[in-house]
Predict the structure.
Amino acid sequence: MDGPGTITWEEFLGDAEKFVQMSNYISDGWDLRGNKNIPGEVYVVRRQKQYIYNNSNNYTALENNDLNFMLKKEDPFEATCPIERPLITEHHVLWSMSYSVPVLYFNGWKSDFPGINSISMEEAQSFVCDRELKYKDLSQAIHPILGTPFLYLHPCMSHELLQITSKSKNKLVSWLSTVAPAALNLKLRPEYYQLTI
C-alpha cells in the first residue's frame, strides 16, 4: 500500500538508519536490529533504566525521563520512607507490511530485570501524560519479529499522522514524535528534529 499517509519499506529503512545515526551521534541509545534485506524484519530499539521513588502514594522519576505517571503503593511503610525502585522501559519501532506505516511496540518492568514485574496494559494507559492525545488503541500483542508479548499502539491512526507530516524529510521521526507521549512517556530529544527539515 503506497500513497499519502504511508511509508514504503525503503523509506522506513532509510529513515530508521538516519535516526540511529543521530542517536549514536548524541549517545541516546537507539539501535537498529534485524535483517535489512527482508521487508518488515528490521526494528529500531532502545532500552532505558531509570529510578522511581514513592512520594505520597505516587511514584516519581529520579533519572533519565520526567515520568508523569503513578503506580500504586504496595507497602504502607513507603508512605513515610520513600524507596527508590527501578523501572526499565523498552521501545521498538517496526514497519507494518499490512498498513505500510511504522508501529510502536513497548514494554516496561518495575524491576532491575526485563521480563520481571511487567507493567500492565491498564498501568500503561494511565501513563499517557497528554490526555488529549486521543490515541486510545493500546493493545497487547505478540511482537512480530521476537514472538514475545508486548504492548503496542495499533497502526490504524498512523495513516492520518503520516498525512499530516507528509512534507517531513524523515517521516519516522515526525510520526514517532507524535505518538511518543502515548508509550510510557517516550521522549525524543530535540536533535532528532533536524532530520525532518
User: Anything to note?
Assistant: Confidence is low (pLDDT under 50) at residues 55-73, 129-134. The radius of gyration is 17 Å. The chain is about 20% helix and 25% strand.
